[in-house]
Amino acid sequence: MRATFRWKTEGLDRAGLTRRVGTSTLTLGGLLKHLAAVEDHKSTVVLDGSPMVGDWSGNGWAEDPDWEFSSSADDAPDQLYARYDHAVAASRERFAAAVATDGLDQGVTIHDDEGRHWSLRRLLHDLIEEYSRHTGHADLLREDVDGRVGEDPPWGWEPPWAGS
Fold this sequence. Notes:
- The chain has about 160 residues and is mainly alpha-helical.
- About 55% of the residues lie in helices and about 5% in strands.
């Protein structure tokens, strides 16, 4: 789902990344920034309780809970792509290390109201669900931008983090 999402957003300029459909405020740039935040949040705070760092310090979430969506129009396309690609690469490394250390059934920081901790397996399923939903959004938005459609990237296309 990560690769399909990245392919759906690939190569767009500011106009393409900020284009909206109908009355929705959702944009491909907003989705890039949102999923970068999701990657960083789930692979730090949710996984092991470590804080989100770097670009997320001093963000605008206190004033605007949809800050990553509403502020993305102010970001240059190369910044949006770099932030997303870096977040995915770092998240893949953190999750791979966690799986290698204690497997998929280990507990993570997040828990339900009764204090039962999710497993890493449950956390990764949640991440897949997040991508599935937003890849569907990206599909509709990208088709409106330039007509690109399809379920999968073309054969041989690889996202920037491939091989890491």
